[in-house]
Design a protein that fits this description.
Blueprint lengths: L2 E3 L2 H9 L5 E6 L5 H13 L2 E6 L19 H10 L4 E3 L3 H4 L19 H4 L3 H16 L3 E5 L3 H13 L5 E5 L19 H18 L4 H10 L4 E9 L10 E11 L2 E11 L3
Helix pairs in contact: 6-7, 8-9
């Protein structure tokens, strides 16, 4: 039986009674198969899986989609029940931020200024702030995050390491539709034509991963789809540092299709020249 709770006091009681290590999946709701994959990964590590559902206002910019971000709590609870989740913590804004927005937030550092950070100022400070709070409130032993938000994952790992937080951070590979589109709660904003155009992102990444010049190969695919407005296309090291001349790397893209902003990435192996 999945327990739905809303307050810090209820959360503290649930965690105190946990029969196993606390495995946490943090979400903003509108759950899809990608989130369910995270829950399954958590279930493999613990009999006590805790899912958080909170649309965090701190990580949305003034012109972003906070107000229209989908809130689907009943459907989300059904998904959590189906995956054997022990507890769902769905706090209000006041419960997460008593007294209003916090005056002290996390600093994402230089890694938070590139790629998504350059396009969405303040986003990572807000994201890291809520993740740190939830790691503390849930007393997480292990937390699971999808690799689709790869920069987010890298920053969370860095925060946990730098601040010596007592949690293991596990990355889970991106889950995709059969046609290759990375699963995202924002995919529901796409019209049928926009969704077809959005396939250029995953196609470009696949093409780039198979060529000696990943950026050139991916750019060619993206340039052929006029409905896709590229924000960035970047080749980096596996930790988002400079790309190596050979070895493991990451190819990342962000673009707008209609009014919807999408991100995606793939790992690849550079062969050198």
């Amino acid at each position: 039986m999945t327990q739905l709770i809303h307050t810090r006091a209820e959360l503290a009681a649930a965690v105190a009674a946990a029969p196993d290590r606390v495995a946490v999946v943090m979400t903003m709701g509108a759950l899809h198969e990608g989130h369910r994959t995270l829950m399954r990964a958590a279930r493999e590590r613990s009999a006590f899986v805790l899912v958080t559902i909170f649309v965090n206002p701190l990580q949305f910019g003034p012109n972003e989609d906070f107000d229209r971000y989908p809130r689907t709590l009943e459907a989300d609870l059904d998904a959590c029940r189906a995956e054997g989740v022990s507890v769902v913590f769905a706090p209000s804004r006041d419960e997460m931020y008593p007294g209003g927005a916090p005056s002290i937030t996390m600093n994402a550092g230089p890694l938070g200024d590139i790629l998504e950070g350059a396009s969405r100022p303040g986003h990572f400070a807000g994201m890291l702030t809520v993740v740190e709070k939830l790691l503390q409130l849930t007393r997480a032993d292990v937390a699971f995050f999808g690799e689709k938000d790869f920069q987010q994952l890298a920053l969370i790992r860095r925060m946990v390491r730098d601040l010596e937080l007592n949690a293991e951070i596990v990355g889970v590979p991106t889950v995709r539709e059969p046609d290759g589109l990375a699963l995202s709660s924002r995919n529901r904003y796409l019209s049928a034509d926009e969704r077809r155009a959005a396939l250029a992102l995953s196609r470009a990444l696949r093409e780039g991963a198979e060529h000696a010049d990943p950026l050139a190969a991916a750019t060619k695919i993206l340039d052929e789809e006029p409905a896709v407005r590229v924000d960035y296309l970047a080749l980096t090291g596996p930790d988002l540092g400079p790309a190596p001349s050979a070895g493991p790397a990451r190819l990342l893209v962000a673009a707008r299709v209609g009014n919807t902003r999408l991100i995606d990435n793939v790992p690849l192996e550079l062969k050198g020249r």
